[in-house]
Write a structure and sequence with these properties.
The protein is an alpha/beta fold. It folds into 2 domains: 8-177 and 362-377, Rossmann fold; 179-357, Glycogen Phosphorylase B (Rossmann fold, 3-Layer(aba) Sandwich). 44% of the residues lie in helices and 14% in strands. It has a 6-stranded parallel β-sheet, with helices on both faces. Strand 8, helix 9 and strand 9 (261-265) form a beta-alpha-beta unit. Helix 1 (8-23) packs across helix 15, helix 8 (215-229) packs across helix 13 (329-341) and helix 11 (293-301) packs across helix 14 (343-357). The protein is globular and about 65 Å long. The two termini are 30 Å apart. The relative contact order is 0.12.
Length: 383
C-alpha cells in the first residue's frame, strides 16, 4: 500500500480493504499495513477491523527481542515468528493480495490473490537475482496456498499451465473500478490548469516505467505519427520511475520527442479521473498484463482506449477498445491516427467503453473473496 511502489497491486489492496470495511461487520480482521497508510482507512464503528503497522519500532522491537531470545536463551523455534505475526491475533486464515505468501504465515490456512505470472513468460525482463527470487517465492507460495483467486481467466490458465496447480482450487474474480472515474471529485479544468494541459491535446499512458509496459514502442509510434502525418500530440505519462526510465528519456532525445514526452511521476489518485477524461486516448501497449487496470479506468472515464491484443487485455477490453500488436509501432501509430482523426470512431469507443466498464465492480470482487474465505472456514482445502 505504499503509494506508487507496486502499481496495480496497491489499488487492489486499498480497494479490497475499503470494500471489506464497508460490507463485512462480522469477521474479525487484523490488517498488517505500512505506517504511511495507517490513517487512510476509516474503521470508526467497525470494531472487527484492527489495523497494525508492519514497519517502525512497534513492529521491529518485538522481532528484535525474539532474535535475541533465539540466540541467547534457547534453540530457534519454527513457530516463534508466527507467534509475532499471527498467533497473538488468533489468526486462522491469511489473505495475501500481492501474489506472495509471507513465510511467517505458511502454517495458517492461506488465501492468495495472484495478479500475474509475468516472470514465467518474459524472464528476460528481470534481473537474474530478481528472477530467481520470484520463482523461489512464488513456488513456495503456491505450495502453501489452500485457494487462489486470479484476477482474470488468462491468469488462471497461466497458473494451471505453468504450475499444475489444481484447477478446482482456483477462482477468477475480475477487479473493480473506483466510482470516481465515472464521477471525478476534482473538476477537469482545475486539473488541466495544474499540469498545464489542454483538453484533448495529449495521449495518456499511466504506468510505472517497467520494461513490460512498453513505453518504448509508444515513443516509436509517436515518431512515426510525426514523420508520416505531421501530427505531434503530447504523450503524458504518470507513474513511478522504474528500470526502463533512463532508457526512455534517452530514446525521447534520440527521436527528437523531448517536447512531446511529459513524465509527471506519481500523481494524486484524485487527479487521475480528470486526466483520463480529458485525454485524446489512453495508450496501453503493454507486453504483459494480469488484468489491465488503466483500461477499465479509462473506459469508465469516457476515454477511448488503444491497447495490446495480448495476455488478459482482450478479456478485459472486450469489444470496447481498439486493439494493436504491442510489438508493432506502425500499427500503434495508425490506431492513434484513427482515433485522433475519426470523430465517429472516437464517440463509438467512448460509448462502448462506458458499457464495458459497468461489468467491473469492487463489490463483486470482494464478494468472491468473502466466499473463498468461507470455504476455508468450512474446511474446504485440497492441501
Amino acid at each position: 500500500m505504499i503509494p506508487g511502489y507496486t502499481g496495480g497491486i496497491e489499488v487492489l489492496a486499498r480497494s479490497l480493504l475499503n470494500t471489506l470495511i464497508r460490507v463485512d461487520a462480522t469477521r474479525e480482521y487484523t490488517v498488517m499495513l505500512p505506517s504511511v497508510a495507517r490513517y487512510d482507512f476509516d474503521v470508526g464503528g467497525r470494531g472487527n477491523f484492527h489495523l497494525q503497522t508492519c514497519d517502525g519500532l512497534g513492529y521491529y522491537l518485538p522481532k528484535l527481542a525474539l532474535v535475541l531470545k533465539k540466540n541467547l536463551l534457547s534453540k530457534p523455534s519454527q513457530n516463534d515468528d508466527i507467534w509475532i505475526q499471527a498467533r497473538r491475533t488468533d489468526a486462522q486464515i491469511a489473505l495475501s493480495p500481492s501474489g506472495i505468501i509471507y513465510p511467517d504465515l505458511y502454517p495458517l490456512k492461506n488465501l492468495l490473490i495472484l495478479p500475474d505470472l509475468q516472470h514465467e513468460y518474459l524472464p528476460e525482463l528481470f534481473y537474474p537475482e530478481e528472477l530467481e527470487n520470484r520463482r523461489k517465492y512464488y513456488a513456495a507460495s503456491f505450495s502453501h496456498a489452500d485457494h487462489i483467486i486470479t484476477i482474470s481467466e488468462f491468469t488462471r490458465q497461466t497458473l494451471i499451465e505453468r504450475t499444475g496447480f489444481p484447477s478446482e482450487r482456483v477462482t477468477v474474480a475480475h477487479l473493480g473500478v473506483d466510482p470516481r472515474f465515472k464521477d471525478p471529485l476534482q473538476p477537469s479544468k482545475k486539473v488541466l490548469k495544474k499540469y498545464n494541459l489542454e483538453s484533448g491535446g495529449y495521449l495518456f499512458f499511466p504506468a510505472n516505467t517497467w520494461h513490460h509496459k512498453n513505453h518504448r514502442n509508444a515513443l516509436q509510434a509517436l515518431h512515426i505519427l510525426r514523420e508520416k502525418y505531421d501530427l505531434k500530440p503530447l504523450l503524458l505519462c504518470t507513474g513511478t520511475p522504474k528500470e526502463a526510465h533512463d532508457d526512455l528519456i534517452a530514446l525521447s532525445l534520440q527521436l527528437g520527442l523531448q517536447d512531446q514526452f511529459l513524465f509527471l511521476g506519481y500523481c494524486s489518485q484524485d487527479d487521475l479521473p480528470a486526466l483520463y477524461h480529458e485525454a485524446a486516448a489512453l495508450l496501453f501497449p503493454s507486453l504483459f498484463e494480469g488484468f489491465g487496470m488503466p483500461v477499465v479506468e479509462a473506459m469508465s472515464s469516457g476515454c477511448p482506449v488503444i491497447c495490446s491484443n495480448t495476455t488478459s487485455l482482450p478479456e478485459i477490453g472486450g469489444e470496447a477498445v481498439l486493439f494493436i500488436d504491442p510489438q508493432d509501432p506502425e500499427m500503434l501509430a495508425e490506431a492513434i491516427y484513427q482515433v485522433l482523426m475519426d470523430a465517429v470512431l472516437r464517440h463509438d469507443l467512448i460509448q462502448r467503453g462506458r458499457q464495458q466498464a459497468k461489468k467491473f465492480s469492487w463489490l463483486t470482487f470482494t464478494s468472491e473473496v468473502l466466499r473463498s474465505l468461507k470455504r476455508l472456514d468450512d474446511g474446504e482445502t485440497g492441501r
